[in-house]
Amino acid sequence: MSEEELHKIAGFIETYAVCLLGSGVHTSRVNRNSQRIAESQGVNMSMMTFQRTVVMTVVEAAGTPVATDQSTPTKATITQNATAKAISPTQSTTRTTAEANATASTDTRVINIPTSSVSFALNSDLSALSWRAIDRHLSLDELWEEYNRIIAKPRINNWQVLTLAGLANASFCKLFGGDWISMIIVFIATVSGLFIKQELQKKEVNHLIATLISAFIAASLAAFACYFDTTAEIAMATSILFLIPGVPLINGIIDVVEGYTLIGFSRLVQAFLLIIFIAVGLSAALLLFKHSLL
Amino acid sequence: MIAGDILTDIFFASIAGMGFGAISNPPRKAFLYIAILAAVGHSMRFCLMNYAHIDIATASFCAALSISLLSIWFGSITHCPMTVLYIPALLPMIPGMYAYHTVLALVKFLQSLQEPALVAKYMQEIFLNGIVTISVVFLLTVGATIPNFIFYKKAYSMTRHRK
Q: Do B12 and A174 touch (CB under 8 A)?
C-alpha cells in the first residue's frame, strides 16, 4: 500500500468518525464503526476522543500493527502534529521516523469536531454503511459515494418537527396533570420557543444564548396561563421541557458506564451547562410574570 | 377508572416520545417503534408507581430495562441501532417536574436569604428535587445500557444485512 493510499483512507475515516461524533453517537459506537471501516480497507486504526477533537492513527495492517501506536515516536508525532495542524490544515499528515516504522507507513491526525445538530438518521445509516463496507468489500470511492448520499439526505420537514414537538410537550403537560387550556398554551409556547431557537441557530448565535432566549420566551408565553383558571404552575414547568438536552445527557452516562469517562463527563458538563441556561431563562420569566408565586 | 388512566398515559406518552424524537431527526421507519417503546416504558412506570407503589427511581429503572430489551427485538426488525430507538423513548421519562421544582426552589431560596426558616425549607426542597432528578436520569440510562452488555453480539451487529 502506498503512502498516498493510506492518507486517502485516513481522510475518509477522519470525516466519517467526526460526522458520527458530531451527530450525537456514543463513543464506543463511533469507535467500533470506524474500526470496521478501517478493517474493510486493510488498515489498523486507533483513536482517542475528546469533546472537541479526535486524535487518530492509521497504520498499514501488513506492517507493524497497533503496537506501534504506543511507541514514543508516534506519540511525539501526535503532539507535533497538533501544532502543525494549527498552521496548515492540509498538511496534517506526518510520516513517522524511519527507525520507528521501518516497514509500515502511518498517518496520525488531530481533527476538530464541528458542532452539528443531533441526527439519529445519520447514526443509523452510517452504522449500516460500516457493515456494508466490510460485508461487500466496498472500495474507497464507493464508500465516499455512499457517504455523500447519506449526508445529502434532507432532515425532517421543519414544520413537521415544530408541530410534533409542540404536540409532544402538550401531551407532557397532560401527563403531569395539566388540563386542556394548559395544553393549548404549552403547545403555543413550545412551537414559538423552538422556532426562535432554530432561527437563532441559523444566525449562528451561541447555542447557550439561543437556549436561554428560547427558554425565556417559552416560559413567558406559558405565563399567560396565570390569566386563565387553569393549572398555570404545570403549564410553566412543562413549557421549557423540549429544551432539556436529553441526548447528550443519556450519551454522557452511556459513555461513563462503558468506561469512556473523560468524554462522558465532558458531555455531561455540556448538558448541565445547557440546563443551567434553561434555568436562568425560566427564572427570569418566573421573576417577571409570576412574582406572586415566589 | 384504572384502565382509562393507563390508556390515557399510553396515548400521551407515545405522542411525547415521537415528538421529542422528531427534534433529533430519527429515521422515518423508526417513528412507529419509538412511539411503542415510549408508550410501553412510560405506562409501565406509571403502573409501577401508582398501583405497585414503587418509588420513581426504581420504577424508571425497570421501565428503561424493558424498553431496552424490547429495542433489541425492534432493532432487528428495523435494522436501526438500539440507541436510535430507546433514547427518544427515554426522553418522556426524564423527570421534568422535579427538575423544574429544583430550579424554582433555588430561585425562592436566593430570594429569602434573610429568613432562616424559609432558607432551611427551600434548601431541603432543592436537595430533595435535585437528588431525585439526578438519580432518575442516571438509573434510566443504566437500565437502558445493561442489555447492551448482556446481548453485545446482537446489539453490535444490529445494522448488518440491511438492504
A: yes
Q: Which chain A residues have a beta carbon less than 8 Å from that of B84? A: 120, 123-124
Residue A94: predicted pLDDT: 46
Residue B77 has pLDDT above 60, yes or no: yes
Chunked mean pLDDT (size 10), chain A, 294 residues: 85 92 90 91 90 90 47 43 43 44 76 87 90 88 90 88 92 88 92 94 90 94 81 85 89 90 93 90 84 56
Chain A with chain B: Cβ pairs closer than 8 A: 163
Q: Which residues of A touch B20 (CB under 8 A)?
A: 165, 168, 242, 246
Task: Tell me the domain boundaries of chain B.
Answer: 2-156
Q: Are A240 and A219 in contact (CB under 8 A)?
A: yes
ipTM: 0.87
What part of B 70-89 touches A (C-beta under 8 Å)? 79-81, 83-84, 87-88
CA-CA distances (angstroms) from residue A60 to A7, A8, A33, A141, B30?
A: 10, 12, 18, 19, 38
Chain A residues in contact with B8 (beta carbon < 8 A) = 174
Among A223, A292, A287, A233, residue whose Cα is nearest residue B107:
A287
Residues A169, A154: Cα–Cα separation, whole Å: 24
Domain limits, chain A? 3-152, 158-289
